[in-house]
Amino acid sequence: MSRDGxxxxxxxxxxxxAGCDLADSCLNCPFPRCIYDxxxxxxxxxxxxxDKEMVRLFTAGGKGINELALIFSVxxxxxxxxxxxxxxxxxxxxxxxxxxx
Length: 101
Description:
With about 100 residues, this protein is mainly α.
């Protein structure tokens, strides 16, 4: 609403698109929905990025769980959880076959 109480069309409103720390402007944002509008959105996104990097370093980089825990300053259990969650998601998508006993 404007100062005089009218609901003006967007072309008559002065909106400064300053963006955030993830994109230089809202119109150039890579996310379909603003992560700041979601509860814990930015933190959740950063954890997913960290977990993907852990999985990449574990599978392609040959890093061990202890080494990954030191690199990312997290516990060994956090690394194990990230690896387990990633494998579970890949199995659900059919990218990793289930192991037979």
